[in-house]
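Lab notes, practical 5.
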Amino acid sequence: VFIAGEAEDNNTQALLDVVRTRLMPGRILAVADGPGGRAGLLYRRHEALGRLHPVHGKSAAYVCRNFTCTLPVTEPEELASNLDAEMKKERMAVGQGSSRQQ
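Output from the prediction step:
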């Protein structure tokens, strides 16, 4: 999960709370909050992150998997829905894999 926004912003904190309240094994959470938005260390070191940025001045979250990221979401409720759907897909994939081995 990649969150682009100022660390002290209330919306950034709300998005972080959504991620932190879910048990997601293997999760990586990155927050890019450099001064001026895109001038932070992550953006300077990783060119691909240039496409992941706040939306209309509002903190945005991207859920990334297998080198692909979702469209940005700015509302905590929408991020929660996206993460819950991802976790459900993951559980289903794990369940299907174990039934094939039997």
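Observations recorded by the TA: Residues 2-101 form one domain. The helical segments are 10-20, 41-45, 76-101.
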